[in-house]
Known about the structure:
Blueprint (H helix, E strand, L loop, with lengths): L3 E8 L9 E8 L4 E5 L8 H7 L3 H4 L9 H11 L3 E4 L2 H9 L7 E4 H8 L9 H7 L11 H19 L3 H16 L14 H13 L5 H13 L1
Parallel strand pairs: 1-4, 4-5
Antiparallel strand pairs: 1-2, 2-3
Helix pairs in contact: 5-8, 6-7, 9-10
Amino acid sequence: MDKLVFLDIESTGLDTDTAEIIELCYITEDGNRSSKLYKPVSPIPPHVSGINNIDNVDVENEEHFQNSSAMYDLRAFAASGYIAVTHNTEFDLGMLKQFDINFEREICTCMLAKYLWPTQIQNHQLGTLRAYLDIPHSGNAHRAEYDVQILIEIFSKMRENHFHSLDEMVEKTRETRAEIDSVWHFGKHYGEKIDVKIHRSYIEWLLKQPNTNPQLRKKLQKRLQDN
Length: 227
């Protein structure tokens, strides 16, 4: 029988190659759970603390995530075939790959929301979905344990009302990401299919911009390399 692990990560940044974990929560369907702060090697940037309210003083006496019990637990879950469920698997699982934690199957509630309600809501952020689905809440948004609790509620509503199986949720996650990644969702080429031959100069310009999203940057760099 498939087992699920729900997880959320708070980090020092958005680049999965360089950001560090400062908080992680996981909850499994079979009763395992952990929610802890972790001390990064580099100080937490002020703008990050402004979002999640985790300051350097909060993590001063905490261990690093590397070699923590949670790291070994998640590695064991991945090796045992658990399905990872997060609201942004591309980021959260990208962060875990730094530590040789590689889940073969994933369910992303953000991707599934974009599949189910592509235009019905203004954005597909966790808090927006919580409100759209009338899920009650109490706690601090952008904190790992709170976000996992909301994630579980959103996932449960999706599973009960819209999907026949976990395999379908895994497949729709994959299909929706591939579809979204193939089209421009901003800028002068909005709605067009991304074509390196046609859009090379635009891609190269985006890669020079310091504020280009790190995940988008990696995808565009790979497109150029593959062409």
